[in-house]
Amino acid sequence: MKKTAIIAITPRGRTTALRLSRHLDAQVWLPLKLKKEEGGVFYYETPFRDIVEKLFSSYENLVFVMAVGIVVRTIAPFLKDKSKDPAVVVMDEGMNYAISLLSGHVGGANELARELARDVGCIPVVTTATDVNEKTAWDIVAKEWKAYSYRDNDIYKALNLAEISAQRIVSCIDVEEDILFDFLKKQGVEEDRVFFCLEDALSHTKKEDNIVLFTVSSHVDVRGRRIRVEEKEFEIEGRRIFPVVKKCYALGVGCRKGIEAQLLKKEFLKFLDALNVHPHSIAVLASIDIKKEEEAILVLAEELGVDFLTYTKEEIRSIEDRMPDMEKSEFVFRQVGVYNVSQSCAYLAGGGEIVKEKTSCDRSTFSLAKI
Q: Which residue ranges does the record assign to the Cobalamin synthesis G N-terminal domain (predicted)?
């Protein structure tokens, strides 16, 4: 369940906030002047703007019981992007309206407003175009499939615009997965607009149509050709292809100290290309803790927009016997105290399912685990 805070600033707002908290299992934040003897309420003496800044980075959902104008002016300096900002809903003190103000799709503010409407009988105010026009919201689809990245927001903007502009959009599911098919149907995508190979999708579309390609692959085979799946929108036979790549792999990394960032990235891409794995499918990088300041890995993590996790040698040693066939290096053990950095760290970060064992590259090693 998402962590939710409800903020009010007046006596009547306080009453409303407490009532809402019982429906949302949320924490209530009030100014100290409204303090009464009761549990489950946090009081603050700092200026309102300062407490909102703190809550903005600490909670996934924020419900403000006050005027919209106050909220807009207060949160404006703290906005980053829709992949990081919390869902913000504003409700009036009389509980007449729940207004989805920020992060409606990806953050979930639209659904939070509707949840409040179901619970307390208010009117949900949702203004996102796909919701108003009852069309598929492709950023929500990507988020539910664990593929959303703010870096790819232009893709979802273009798809949502095409959707509300009545342009035909078909889906190609280039993975073995039933859950996505079921979710697409729930999002209003008819079965005759879903295909399971790109060749079929191309055969059943016209040049003005759009194809959403759900994949984890770096290449697809189409009509005897091997075509690279680009990072952004690209074309095949005049059709616009929008790649939506699921983040489903953990990459274990070992490398020599001081390796150049350009070399590490080159070897990383070569490693994935040999496996037909798209770079955007990497959800996390992992290595031993003595590499936590290794610039080349930090640069790669930043370029991919993913977290970089590190583990102690004790944590790594504790799981080595779970991989009896793992390649062990006495040289690595003498250097860092474990037998295999990349595979062990991939195992830890991914949860145990190794897809590709340790692969030695130029001054680096990589391993891949399914999350």
A: 51-131
In one letter, which amino acid is 346?
A
Length of the chain, please?
Answer: 371
* Beta-strand runs (E) in 86-209: 87-91, 97-102, 123-125, 169-173, 194-195
Strand-pair partners of 211 = 170, 241
Task: Please report where in the chains the tokens 């903005």 appear, as a residue.
Answer: 56
Rounded distance between C-alpha atoms, residue 151 and residue 232, angstroms: 10
How far apart CA 344 and CA 320 sit, in angstroms, is 7
The answer to whether 113 and 124 have CB atoms below 8 angstroms apart is: yes
Residues 6+ apart with CB under 8 A from 239: 202, 205, 207, 209, 210, 211
Predicted pLDDT at 1: 58
What does the pLDDT look like over 170-221, one tens digit per residue?
A: 999 999 877 888 889 888 889 999 999 999 999 999 998 999 999 999 999 9
Question: What are the tokens at 344?
Answer: 């062990």
Identify which of 261, 250, 319 has the alpha carbon closest to the alpha carbon of residue 285: 250
Instruction: Using alpha carbons, list the distances in angstroms from residue 92 to 28, 44, 97, 118, 348.
Output: 16, 21, 6, 16, 47
- Report the 10 Å Cβ neighbour count for 212: 27
Q: Which regions of the chain are under pLDDT 50? A: none
Contact 264, 255 (CB under 8 A): yes
| Tokens (6 digits) for 153 | 């927001």
Instruction: Encode pLDDT of 56-67 as tens digits.
Output: 999 999 999 999
Q: Which of 249, 255, 332 is nearest to 283 (CA)?
A: 249
Q: Which of 38, 41, 58 is nearest to 7 (CA)?
A: 41
| CA–CA dist 118, 122 (Å, integer) | 8
The pLDDT score that the predictor gives to residue 136 is: 84
User: From CA 157, how far away is CA 210, in angstroms rounded?
Assistant: 13
What local confidence, expressed as pLDDT, does residue 81 receive? Answer: 82
Q: Write the CA distances from 25 to 3, 17, 116, 154, 325, integer angstroms.
A: 9, 11, 12, 35, 47
CB–CB of 139/106 below 8 Å? yes
